[in-house]
Design a protein that fits this description.
Elements lengths: L1 H8 L7 H20 L2 H8 L3 H7 L3 H23 L4 H9 L7 H17 L3 H27 L8 H21 L3 H19 L16
Helix pairs in contact: 1-5, 1-7, 2-3, 2-5, 2-7, 3-4, 5-8, 6-8, 7-8, 7-9, 8-9, 9-10
Amino acid sequence: MIEYSINMVEDADDVSTEQALLRATGQALREHGIEGLTTERVAEAWGKSQSLVHYYYETKTELVTAYIEYVRSNCNAEYEARASDPPTERIRWFLDFSADPTETERAASRVQLELHATAAHNDAYRAELNRLEDDGRAFVRQAIEDGITAGEFRDVDVEATTSLLLSAHDGGVLRATTLERSEDADTLRRGLEEYLSSVLGVEEDHNPSNGGAEDS
């Protein structure tokens, strides 16, 4: 779920010096990947000296971890801004990804996958990515709970439904990014819409507003 988050970072205005460094880190990650990332390349993207990069972060691990924290901060700001949106709109926004992504979006998705792969043997990345995952999961969970309370969704197992939606989305991103199967993105979007309307959505005769009464 990081791919949209990385793009969010690029929309930030009036950033501080350190935030500008973290934005440059995102640019360098998209251009060179996690394995090719060096503080020298970050400095080039930033337009500052390598020594200034090391002034803020001594190691590559510290820098990348701080970048994930920065992404998480941007995500949480977006979650807060959308917290009052209708539950279905929140879920659609969170799960949406482009069937015809730009090169920047493709690169951002590749960074997402590379970070997750690296996290398997990097405790610092894994810890911060888990925090990012937990925040996103909480956003989707709250939307489902709000939908149930409002009578828009059936009384489903919230944790199971949250996991299903996130796993379907992440699998779609994986295939679309690594195999360039853009058709999978459109197919998955249709499948998610079908799930939202036919499985999660409340049918008219189950709506509390009509008392659940059936026509005689």
